[in-house]
Amino acid sequence: MAKVIEKAQQEKESLISGSEAIAVACKLADVDVITAYPIRPYDTVMQYVAKLVANGELDCEYIVAESEHSQFEIVKHASAAGARVFCGSSGVGWMYAFEALTVTPALRIPMVAMVGNRALDDPGAFGVEHNDALAVRDLGWQLVWVDNAQEALDTALIAYRVAEDRRVFLPCAIACDGAFLTHSQSMVKIPPQEWVDAFLPPYNRGDLLLHPDNPITVAPQVNEDWLMELRKHNDEAMKRSKTAVIPEAYRDFERIFNRAYGNPFFEEYQTEDADVVLVGMGTLSMPVKVAIRQMRKEGKKVGFVRVRWFRPFPAEELAQTLGRFKAVGVIDRDYSFGSPHMSGVLATEIRASLYPAAARPPVVGFICGLGGREVTVPDVRRMSDMVFKAAAGQAQPPVTWIGIRE
Amino acid sequence: MGRLFAVEIVYRGIFQKNLAKNISRGIVLAAKHDGKTGISFGRYGDSPERNGIPAKNFAIVATDDETLQEGMAKYEPKETDISISVDDTLCKGVESWAWYGLQPINRLLKPNGTLIVTTMKGPEAVIEMCHRKDAPYRLALLTAIPSFSGLWVYKDDHTDVRILGAIAKVLPELLSLKSVEKAIKEEWHDDLKVKSAQKAFERVTTSVVSPQEGNPEKPYEFELPKWYELREGLAIPSIPKGKEIADPVSQQTGGFRPDRNPTFKKYSTRTMRPVVDFDTCVKCTLCWLQCPDSCFDVTPDGYYDANMQACCGCGVCEAVCPVANCITMVNETAFADNASQWEMWKKEKPAYKTWLQEKIQHKPERSHGFWVRGQYEKQVDQMVKDGIVDTGGEAITEKVVTDVGEASAGG
């Protein structure tokens, strides 16, 4: 990181969508191999990548595979051979690639993927739910949620930096809410190439490179006397990602790009003096922030914690932060049928994070905005009212479905 | 708290998808020069790749970031300062893909908001098509035929920038003409387009529409079921088979009218409709067989009556009809209702003949693309010659404009 950064360089503002921002990040990261297979909302990324390639702005192998499974297998192999890779999918397309998704972290492949969050079939629906990306949460994938196009671009660059760090070498999926983020264009600052080059070193696979000069066999069959030790590798890599590599990457990002994200793992909004907070991921931050500003004017001290990194999960940091409040409401844009308290995934993780903590505020769960249904400002106010009641000692149900016709 | 502006662009998929995007992008980029911030997006639930289907794009602009967030916190705007219809047949109301009910074109307009329509008609004819609204609004007309500008196989006709010029006139608080000029230079690098925007600014005509004016029809709408009212397992009941119909004069029953989806009718996709001369019909069945939407009812006397609750206006019936001038496609704006032509003919044949002769004078100004090859290019040249698109007589170049913004997105 000793490179001199050309300070005279300026960022250029462009009116682009979250999907275009991811494609621009691929260009800036000078990705070598990109595979594609269409499914909405991810397919907008492949369209923009194809355009960049056709316009001669991005020099990469661009392969449209015959299915998502092949799409992820191709980049897995290319990455093993030393290529910086990108791919992505949505909903059931991501699920069709599942076998490839399971083998990728085990082989320590630093693939970066975009998941355009989409409801899982059936019924066929385009709208956002987080269950598609969450399906890989136990496998060694790093998972990060963003809430605007600028953050999508920046996080894609950070994802390469983190994933390709030799201490990590784990894949990273950037989850982008379908519609609200993937399909709306806003003003995005596009950094100059020099800054990106200073931030993102070349991908060096070292002794894991699949190359004739480095004779190795990858992915042999093993028995019970080998497997636990190999799983331990991924466990340690995930720990290093959380404790060292992600914080380092954000520090360097702030230094070079002059854009600060503060705590890398979650954003806090108006929490300083809050009595209660809501917690959620992705673009539902917009109605939540608008509602908070309304409620603040009425003297209701409510804040918001937007979780960015879901894997590695910032359990201790969240427990410490959430312990400051009298009650916590967790908004899940997902479901986990039959789970503890029939809750959403995020609420369950937050309850688990809080259990060993000294201060354990009551956690009120909400399931909301499934299939792309709008999370409205009145919805957020209703949820906040329940959390305030919990703070006042009135027990609330562990989970409530909000915005359903009943 | 700052001010929030919302603009919707109602267009026909697939032909006007790029046009609508260019307009909503242009609004955000122009407003930026006036110190505002904004976003541009299409209605995610639409399926704008479908031929002729109504679809929407939105531009949301605010005086500051926090106010913009209020606009971004919604799936789509609940009310608009300006609604734009880039095909006048959309003024009859729109039913987008997977959308329940017919939405009046002016439904989202705030009181005293402005509906901008590109049309060759005068305000009276346009107001007649638009549903009545509780509050008064303004109607701004820009002379033009339905544009395919920006669609990759068609020539640019400057409709995108002409709309921006009109917006600068009707709502200068949103964006100024100066900013429109700057944005056009940056985005399109075309001085001729700047000139077209300036002329549109001068020429757009505005009138006030009162709550008593417009189409009195109550648009159809539906109540969506509660979760416990829906059948489990994603099972939905099929449409019943259909039944015989009755002759309005003899009361004889017979024939067959298929039952149709009561919640999704599709007919707002139509920009033209078939008019049938039953006196020359030879009952060959071809229109009935070939109609992709099964829109023809079989009458008790063996004729085929295009049902206007089901016709999407594709024109296949006219193409396959073996009898000269028996089926003629007519511009949708020439009709006030969806009444049965066969019933009208049965009741009074000479009157029907007169009605038919009058209707078939209204040829479609623009069909869905495949109708007459080269028609569009000729129309654009003619519009410049006629001074409708005023470029000072200078011909619009062959330059094809597609996704200008995307091309530059890579920086």
Relevant terms:
A: 406 residues; alpha/beta; Rossmann fold; 2 domains; 7-stranded mixed sheet; 6-stranded mixed sheet; 13 helices; B: 411 residues; Pyruvate-ferredoxin Oxidoreductase, domain 3; 12 helices; 27% helix; globular; disordered C terminus; Pyrv_flavodox_OxRed_cen (chain B)
Question: Mind explaining what this structure looks like?
Answer:
The complex is a heterodimer of chains A (406) and B (411). Chain A is 38% helix and 19% strand. Chain A has 406 residues and is α/β, with parallel strands linked by helices. Chain A folds into 2 domains: 12-257, Thiamin diphosphate (ThDP)-binding fold, Pyr/PP domains (Rossmann fold, 3-Layer(aba) Sandwich); 266-402, 3-Layer(aba) Sandwich (Rossmann fold). In chain A, the strands form 3 sheets. In chain A, strands 3-2-4-5-7-6-12 form a 7-stranded mixed β-sheet, with helices on both faces. In chain A, helix 13 links the parallel strand 14 and strand 15 (399-402). Chain B folds into 2 domains: 4-219 and 384-408, Pyruvate-ferredoxin oxidoreductase, PFOR, domain III (Pyruvate-ferredoxin Oxidoreductase, domain 3), CATH 3.40.920; 239-359, Alpha-Beta Plaits (2-Layer Sandwich). In chain B, 27% of the residues lie in helices and 19% in strands. Chain B has 12 helices and 13 strands. Chain B is globular and about 70 Å long. The chains are: A alpha/beta (406), B alpha/beta (411).
